[in-house]
Design brief:
The complex is a heterotrimer. Chain A is mainly alpha-helical. Chain A has two domains: about 280 residues, Cytochrome Bc1 Complex, Chain C; about 100 residues, no CATH class. Chain A has 20 helices and ten strands. In chain A, the strands form five sheets. Chain A has a two-stranded antiparallel sheet. Chain A is globular. Chain A starts with 12 loop residues before the first helix and ends in a 5-residue tail after the last helix. Chain B folds into three domains: about 80 residues; about 35 residues, no CATH class; about 140 residues, Rieske Iron-sulfur Protein (3-layer Sandwich), CATH 2.102.10.10. In chain B, strands 4-5-6-7-12 form a five-stranded antiparallel beta sheet. Chain B has a four-stranded antiparallel beta sheet with strand order 8-9-10-11, with no helix packed on it. Chain B is extended, with a radius of gyration of 38 Å. Chain B contains eight helices and 14 strands. Chain B is an alpha+beta fold. By secondary structure, chain C is mostly helical. Chain C has two domains: about 120 residues, Cytochrome c-like domain (Cytochrome Bc1 Complex, Chain D, domain 2, Orthogonal Bundle); about 90 residues, Orthogonal Bundle (Cytochrome Bc1 Complex, Chain D, domain 2). A two-stranded antiparallel ribbon of chain C has the order 1-2. In chain C, a hairpin with a 5-residue loop joins β1 and β2. Chain C is globular, with a radius of gyration of 24 Å. Classes of the chains: A mainly alpha, B alpha+beta, C mainly alpha. Chains in contact: A-B, A-C, B-C. The interface between A and C is large, with 73 and 61 residues. β5 of chain A pairs antiparallel with β3 of chain B, so a sheet runs across the interface.
Chain lengths: ~550, ~350, ~270
């Protein structure tokens, strides 16, 4: 292959370049496995691409912004074109952001694309994560990739936080002040951490520079690594697919990377970038000129973080002000508890795949994406989790709810306090019932066919609706999901009459397993016998 | 966990259905296999295919035009030009034009490519085999053998001294990095316990930068003050004002419920720290009829007529009060520093 | 209009129409009245107080007492001054419609001439802040940037960065300042209506009030520029987040559905 042959015809230029590269990089071997890689078509499989592309857009626009931004907190007087701030004292960081927004042509657009893309990046990751969760696409072999994705979401939140704090405006400064107050609440180490992070007392003159290096180098560096690893694993595992005719656990059905997905996925990058650019053209985001430069003695009402921190904001807003003073020390529970619940709630969803695989004890690979209704307990847990998250988002915006819905701030706070606990329970029960109902409907459809909407009058006067039988493909699709049988504890005494020792963990596992797959938690899917019995008496319902 | 035994019968059986299984008469639910490919209009009608081709090319041309528009906008519109565009309002002409043209230029490349893929590239669905991620037992055995050989050759197991000292060195070396972080900031010491306020410093009105007289402060009014000698131009203004900012209100002395608050006031003029005791937002949403003051960040509510007691929200203790009086020139002055740390609580606060 | 027509059968509708008609008549009268009456002399002043007293006993006395001494339903008006009356009645807050956490801004039902008469009467009950003249509140020549700084120190905590308003405790709120007359802004700072604290001239001189009014007008009026595009209510990250989810992610999902959807097939042969 790589040896020079004495053929008269010279290979075309492209091929010769590829040969050259192959000799050094081994690209042919790489291409052999991947060039015609198959990707299944489903809109929800593109949510991850929304995240990937908005991440790339953020990097591109971010690099542009670094050319004009000065990460410094030196005080300067504003002399730029924006009249309502002329003569005001501000940090160089704020001043340079004003310069980007009002004097650099296109600077405002890039700033707005950067910020909008960040909000969409986080929102996209949230929805992508939920898609993976509800279809069970986190099961073996994808648990590690789920964790990579979760870490990306988690780091994305902090990259966003350090990013929107950089302009040193009054709103983000208030957020940084909150963070400093939260750090102070850490027992024993709090004051030290705060002094070290801020180079002394708040606000000091260091945090913008320090956040800057975290925002443009440390955090995105780690995230880029994780994104690459995430993508490699997607290639290695091959994409999941929904059940259907010809789609099994041992294959992946779809279109090849070259050319279809090259065009679709490549085109989608431009579509995402285009949509975000249009949004940045029509909608203002973080107008720091209206917000003003940061001063620790000034504030505005409606002081909220970007949406992805709204969950934490809600927790901190609705927490009662508990504080314990003992032996000359203070335990600031009112801040510490929300600070601990925040990662704990996120961790609950992060470790879920491991808990589920422990409960099922299933060690096989799964490549078929489940329909949420066919995993009622998991779906109910996911909806309960989202409910808790959303209720805290409401809590984080309680003042705006109050003004826009003419409610009392205090009533909303109490509502959130109660429904952070009650809401998920209600959501869990309701979701499980809905899932079971949908399972029954599927079963009905399989056994009796599709409701055609045609009403037929029988000779003796009875009206019936004609049910059309489903195609075999449809029958297969609705019955392809697997159902676990609920686990049972082995008898307390084994066959030799010796008492069996069963650990507490195993007992718990069996109990949870029954909760997942017991009679009340799933509707047995139709069997071939049931189907045949009903079909043999066809026409009679 | 790894040792637990999962009875086979609890696992569903159906997973290993062979790929492309043929219809079995006995099993109406069996996988009928991939349905045959149905052609699109473009596959059978060359004119339709031509139309698609033109549509794709049209989108690419639109993108080119949009890029030209982008460059033209960049040149034409001054950076400070504001125009009214319904329904967006009075917006920057440049931002709007650049964003729309850039958006269109990008969007139509994407739309063209996707339309091309959807209508003209083959849409025959192909199945690709999956292979287990786990290695085969032979591969695993080979790797284990290699590892054992390598480990044995290194002598890690036999020469414990080398192994232990190496672990020791590796675990100590990161300490240097941690030590280097020491100069990130000073030690807390008493910094959070004191502010700029001392006995005799006059209360300076933040609006006028003049010292305040008691008669300036009316019942129901709200005033903010900083210590005499502090200026916005000072290098450490931000750090100082973050602790020293004051909120001054006047309450009818008979309405003040807290005895100490009344004692520390001057004829009902009370000076409280403006910094919330929850996480440090400047708190100042003063309701003059109820004497409640609300924090805009997390809604902690304090009653300024009752020693700034917390009546709602996440704050854990009252706002510190500054003891004030009047100096011989008739101006309000501090009678000392706050007697407790201002702002958020911390471990050493006590 | 829909809102209006929906309420045309409201029991109070007739009263409102009547009052509006009266207000319109009074307004027309005020507009066409000879300029000579503008000369405020002793007689005109006492005439205004007389007229004001009549209006007062019809519209205000039931809550504030016949002599403005206050009742359980309304505070005493002795010493609130003409500025407070001009603000409360001139923004439609008074007369109040129903008890609640806070009396909202409503349609104004008195003409400016009637308001002035009411103000003259209430001012006669006891000295208080006097209704400002245009020279006092006109933002012409004021320092907008200084006004911005003052706004962020004194006002933004309740009214938001650009005066969009915000929540207070137990259903109370700081209203939006959009479209509020400079005179009313001035009067509100001077008198501290309802739960708003006052910012008297002793701590916030007239010039600074003008600066603040100039700032509010610059950043929160119909013609205020929002260079970046839609203001999204000027509420900050909450509305931005909502926009990103609904329109940003929404649009992208719509696009994704198109990208992933199967192309229409030709009719089965």
């Amino acid at each position: 292959m790589s040896t020079v042959t004495n053929t008269q015809k010279k290979a075309p230029a492209g091929e010769r370049v590829a040969d050259w590269a192959d000799g050094r990089l081994g690209i042919y071997t790489l291409a052999k496995a991947n060039m015609r890689k198959i990707f299944p078509d489903h809109w929800s499989f593109m949510l991850g691409e929304v995240c990937l592309y908005s991440f790339l857009i953020i990097i591109l626009t971010g690099v542009y912004l670094t050319m004009f931004f000065h990460p410094s907190m030196n005080e300067v007087e504003y002399v730029g074109p924006y009249v309502p701030l002329q003569g005001q004292l501000m940090s160089e960081a704020f001043n340079s952001t004003m310069h980007i927004s009002f004097e650099v042509r296109g600077g405002l657009l890039i700033r707005q694309i950067h910020h909008w893309a960040a909000l969409i990046f986080l929102a996209g990751m949230f929805v992508h994560m939920m898609r993976v969760f509800f279809t069970g696409a986190f099961r073996k072999p994808r648990e590690i990739n789920w964790l990579f994705g979760f870490l990306l979401f988690f780091l994305g939140m902090f990259t966003g936080f350090t990013g929107y704090s950089l302009p040193d405006d009054l709103l983000s400064g208030t957020g940084v002040r909150f963070m400093q107050g939260a750090i102070l609440s850490v027992p024993v180490l709090g004051t030290y951490l705060s002094m070290f992070l801020f180079g002394g007392e708040f606000p000091g003159g260091d945090f913008v520079a320090r956040f800057y290096s975290a925002h443009v180098l440390l955090l995105p560096g780690i995230m880029l690594g994780l994104v690459v690893a995430h993508l490699i694993l997607v290639f290695v595992h091959k994409h999941t697919q929904f059940a259907g005719p010809g789609r099994t656990n041992d294959n992946v059905v779809g279109m090849p990377l070259l050319p279809v997905y090259m065009a679709k996925a490549g085109g989608f990058f431009f579509l995402v970038f285009g949509v975000i650019a249009v949004i940045a053209a029509i909608a203002s985001i973080n107008p720091i000129w209206a917000i003003g430069p940061y001063r620790p003695d000034q504030v505005s009402t409606g002081a909220q973080p970007d949406w992805y921190m709204g969950f934490a904001e809600g927790l901190i807003r609705v927490m009662p002000g508990w504080e314990i003073n003992l032996w000359g020390h203070t335990l600031v529970l009112g801040v510490m508890i929300p600070l601990a619940i925040f990662p704990a709630v996120l961790a609950a969803i992060a470790v879920y795949p491991f808990i589920e695989s422990w409960i099922t004890g299933d060690k096989r690979e799964h490549h078929i994406a489940q329909r949420p209704r066919n995993a009622p307990t998991r779906t109910a847990f996911g909806v309960a989790w989202i409910t808790a998250y959303m209720i805290m988002l409401v809590g984080g915006g309680n003042d705006l709810w109050a003004t826009h819905f003419h409610l009392s701030l205090n009533s909303i706070t109490w509502f959130v306090r109660i429904f952070f606990f009650a809401g998920p329970v209600i959501a869990f029960v309701a979701t499980k019932r809905i899932c079971l109902g949908l399972q029954r409907r599927d079963k009905d459809k399989v056994l009796h066919g599709r409701e055609s909407g045609i009403i037929k009058r029988l000779p003796h006067g009875e009206f019936v609706e004609v049910h059309e039988p489903l195609s075999q493909g449809e029958l297969h699709r609705l019955t392809a999901h697997e159902q676990y049988a609920a686990a049972e504890l082995p008898p307390a005494v084994d066959e030799n009459g010796v008492e069996r020792k069963i650990g507490a963990m195993e007992k718990l596992r069996v109990k949870l397993n029954k909760g997942y797959y017991g009679e009340d938690s799933q509707v047995a899917k139709p069997t071939v016998e049931e189907y045949k019995e009903i079909q043999s008496g066809h026409g009679h319902h | 966990m790894s040792s637990q035994e999962i009875p086979e019968e609890t696992l569903p059986a159906g997973q290993d259905t062979a790929h492309g299984a043929v219809t079995v008469a006995d099993d109406p639910f069996a996988d009928p296999g991939l349905p045959p490919h149905k052609p699109r209009i473009q596959d059978i009608d060359e004119r339709a295919a031509r139309r698609s081709e033109r549509a794709v090319a049209f989108m690419f041309v639109l993108s080119m035009l949009a890029t030209v528009g982008f460059i033209a906008s960049y040149v034409i519109f001054p950076v400070d030009k504001i125009v009214y565009i319904w329904p967006f309002g009075h917006v920057s002409a440049l931002n709007f034009a650049l964003g729309m043209t850039l958006g269109a230029a990008l969007f139509f490349i994407g739309a063209g490519a996707v339309h091309w893929a959807r209508t003209l590239m083959s849409d025959v669905e192909v199945a690709d085999e999956r292979h287990p991620i786990e290695a085969s037992p032979e591969v695993k055995a080979k790797v284990m053998a290699d590892f054992a050989a390598g480990a044995a050759e290194s002598g890690m197991g036999r020469r414990k001294l080398i192994r232990n000292t190496m672990f020791g060195a590796l675990s100590l070396v990161p300490l240097s990095g941690i030590v280097l972080l020491r100069d990130m900031g000073p030690l807390p010491e008493k910094k959070l316990r004191t502010t700029m306020w001392t006995k005799g410093l006059q209360l300076i009105n933040m609006n006028t930068h003049e010292p305040l007289r008691p008669e300036d402060v009316a019942v129901g009014s709200l005033t903010f003050a900083m210590p005499e000698g502090l200026s916005e131009h000072d290098e450490h203004f931000q750090t100082q004002i973050a602790k020293a900012a004051l909120m001054i209100v006047r309450i009818q002395p008979e309405d003040i419920k807290d005895k100490r608050e009344l004692e520390w006031s001057h004829q009902g003029i009370v000076a409280f720290s403006k910094i919330c005791t929850h996480v440090g937002c400047p708190i100042s949403l003063y309701e003059q009829q109820t004497h409640h003051v609300l924090c805009p960040c997390h809604q902690s509510t304090f009653d300024l007529s009752d020693g700034a007691r917390v009546i709602f929200g996440p704050a854990g203790h009252p706002l510190p009060q500054l003891r004030i009086g009047v100096n011989d020139k008739g101006f309000l002055e501090a009678l000392g520093d706050f007697d407790e740390p201002v702002g958020p609580a911390f471990w050493e606060r006590g | 209009m829909k809102k209006l027509s929906a309420r045309r059968r409201h029991p109070l509708a007739a009263v409102v129409v009547l009052l509006l008609a009266l207000a319109a008549t009074g307004g027309l009268y005020a507009a066409f009245a000879p300029a000579g009456t503008a000369k405020a002399d002793e007689t005109a002043q006492s005439l205004a107080i007389e007229e004001g007293k009549k209006l007062y006993s019809v519209g205000c006395a039931s809550c504030h007492g016949t002599g403005g001494q206050g009742t359980s339903d309304g505070p005493s008006l002795v010493g609130v001054g003409s500025a407070a009356v001009d603000f409360q009645v001139g923004t439609g807050r008074m007369p109040a419609q129903q008890p609640g956490a806070q009396v909202p801004r409503k349609k104004v039902i008195y003409s400016q001439a009637e308001i002035d008469q009411l103000a003259a009467y209430v001012a006669s009950l006891g000295a208080g802040p006097i209704k400002p003249t245009e020279g006092q509140y006109s933002p012409d020549g004021a320092d907008i940037a200084k006004g911005g700084e003052l706004f962020r120190t004194n006002c933004a905590q309740c009214h938001n960065f650009t005066g969009e308003g915000g929540a207070l405790t137990y259903g109370k709120y700081a209203p939006s300042l959009e479209g509020v007359d400079p005179k009313h802004l001035y009067e509100a700072m001077q008198t501290g209506p309802q739960n708003m604290p006052s910012f008297p001239d002793t701590t916030m001189p007239e010039k600074e009030k003008k600066d603040i009014i100039a700032y509010v007008q610059a950043v929160n009026s119909d013609s205020s520029a929002s260079p970046g595009g839609l203001k999204l209510g000027g509420l900050g990250p909450v509305s931005e987040g909502l926009f990103a989810w609904v329109f940003g992610l929404g649009a992208l999902i719509a696009v994704a559905i198109w990208v992933a959807a199967h192309t229409a097939k030709a009719k089965k042969s």
